[in-house]
Amino acid sequence: xxxxxxxNRVVVFHxxxxxxxxxxxQVEQALRAADFDTEINLVFQPQFDLGKNxxxxxxxxARWESPVLGKIGPDQFIKIAEESGLxxxxxxxxxxxxxRVLKSWEDPIPLSINLSSHDLISDQVIDQIVRxxxxxxxxxxxxxxxxxxxxMMVDLEKASTNLLQLSDIxxxxxxxxxxxxxxxxxxLRSLPISKLKVxxxxxxxxxxxxxxxxxxxxxxxxxxxxxxxxxxGVENELELIIAKRVGPQSVQGYLFGEPMNATELYLHVxxxxxxxxxxxxxxxxxx
Length: 287
Ligand code: C2E
Ligand code: MG
Ligand code: MG
Ligand code: MG
Hints:
Layout: H1 2-5, H2 7-33, H3 36-39, E1 40-49, E2 54-66, E3 70-72, H4 74-83, H5 87-104, E4 111-114, H6 117-120, H7 123-136, E5 143-148, H8 149-153, H9 156-168, E6 173-178, H10 185-190, E7 195-198, H11 201-204, H12 209-225, E8 228-232, H13 237-246, E9 250-252, H14 262-286
Helix pairs in contact: 2-4, 5-7
The chain binds ligand C2E and magnesium ion (MG) (3 copies).
Protein name: EAL domain-containing protein
Organism: Parasphingorhabdus litoris
Domain EAL: 24-273
């Protein structure tokens, strides 16, 4: 059997595996040695409400700048952090930093924070999050948590207990990557979820008529469950037109802003509010 593939191909295959393993090992080593407080930074991506016609929240996204490896995206380090038991510390770093950002703003912009499967099944992580928020004195409604179906399926019972603990004190919970998981009504109904974030892989394929039908179905599930529907990955005007046809309450994507630092986000929202007030005054004068 091996002969059929030829000698060279087998060698290349092995090399690639070895290269991947070596890279993974490097990332894990750098992650273990990292000082998260200085190396992990936060960026924020606007979530735009189509009814209110303004930014109503922003998603917190982690960025890692390693002194050894340079900039590494979350797609490359979150999974490794989960597998090597480092994710809890990263999550708590992100939560701590997000709370400091919120405290620094005169008029706080509500944020959302991603939780990983490990966080969801750990009582300690959830307890520490609750403690950090309580010490900050901030209103829990300012911090939404994003979870995925895959993460919850690791231990559904534990995950729902922990999510209930967060939602009971006023944290909104959003289901991330919606449409790529199980879409099981029974458990969706039993969890304290107030928002479905439809995965951006659907917006990537909007040219295809079947994709638009699927988007309508996913938005229909949100409607049936009476929860907020957000479409992710809206990159241009055409995609916005299609998104609006599907009828979500809000959208997130490059068209409304790429992930940016806290100051940029604050200025962005401030500018939007000034425009809005001007608009209101104009309509008072005219009307
Ligand atoms: P996610 O939570 O689904 O976040 C959305 C990702 O899509 C972000 O990538 C964002 O930059 C990207 N995105 C947003 N709009 C557009 C668009 O219009 N077009 C395209 N092509 N992409 C768009 P990012 O920041 O690289 O994060 C990737 C994933 O890493 C996140 O997916 C999330 O699962 C994970 N992640 C990021 N930060 C954290 C964190 O602090 N904790 C945990 N546990 N996971 C995180
Ligand atoms: Mg997310
Ligand atoms: Mg998402
Ligand atoms: Mg995603």
